[in-house]
Design goal:
Blueprint: E1 10-11, E2 15-18, H1 25-32, H2 35-38, H3 50-61, E3 69-75, E4 79-87, E5 94-100, H4 109-125, E6 129-135, H5 139-147, E7 151-161, E8 166-177
Parallel strand pairs: 5-6
Antiparallel strand pairs: 1-2, 2-3, 3-4, 4-5, 6-8, 7-8
Helix pairs in contact: 1-3
The structure holds coenzyme A (COA).
């Protein structure tokens, strides 16, 4: 039986994490069409169009929630401010990824979203380990992960960045234990 029977909704003080819907595409494209955002991720292209957002939403809506969980991060007042997801694309452990629109940075939203998501991971998704990797030139993401309880493993991987057109960006690996 699937550990997740219905599309989960995670509520935090200021945010709601929920499955994305097709009407989110304009807001997702607006936040992701920024090389400062996409260039810190492995998979977002640059430029990032509304059809890229629609494809991501379609993928999220059809994913197997036992292995992949994708959320739109909705601020209670401002609407969709970012994305957060877990997948198993690179190994046996769930790996977290997230991005916030630039105008919403440095207000604690990513930390709040990651902490809320990890509570869900432990209680409902029933995973005991989550891994993360942030590009070495992205200390803000490292700070988010540290504040949410991740620890550095000491491993540095070389990972692709679609938006940068590179496949060798030094990436600091981290782990969280429930
Ligand atoms: C990384 C990102 C998600 C952070 O989102 P956010 O909502 O601004 O994060 P928070 O406000 O919760 O926390 C950011 C922390 O980083 C710190 N920070 C910001 N810029 C920093 C820098 N250049 N060096 C070190 N720390 C930095 C902030 O001070 C804050 O820490 P503090 O609360 O201890 O002061 C956001 O910048 C983003 O979406 N970037 C592009 C995509 C991305 O990097 N995704 C993650 C891929 S691993």
């Amino acid at each position: 039986m699937c550990a997740v029977d219905v599309t989960p909704v995670i509520a935090t003080e200021r945010l709601i994490l929920r499955g994305p819907v097709v009407t989110d595409a304009p807001a997702i494209a607006a936040m992701a069409h920024d090389v400062a955002v996409a260039g810190m991720t492995t998979s977002m292209p640059h430029p990032y169009s509304e059809s890229d957002a629609e494809a991501w939403i379609e993928h999220a809506r059809n994913c197997d929630w036992r292995r992949t969980a994708m959320f739109a991060i909705e601020h209670r007042a401002f609407g969709v401010v970012g994305l957060l997801g877990f997948d198993h694309d690179r190994g046996p452990r769930a790996e977290i990824g997230y991005a916030l629109g630039r105008r919403f940075w440095n207000r604690g939203y990513a930390t709040e979203a990651v902490r809320g998501a990890l509570k869900w991971v432990k209680r409902d998704w029933r995973k005991a380990v989550v891994v993360a990797g942030h590009f070495a030139d992205n200390p803000a993401s490292g700070q988010v992960l540290c504040k949410a309880g991740f620890l550095y493993t000491g491993d540095i991987q070389r990972r692709p960045s679609r938006a940068r057109g590179r496949d060798d960006v030094p990436t600091r690996m981290m782990v969280w234990l429930a």
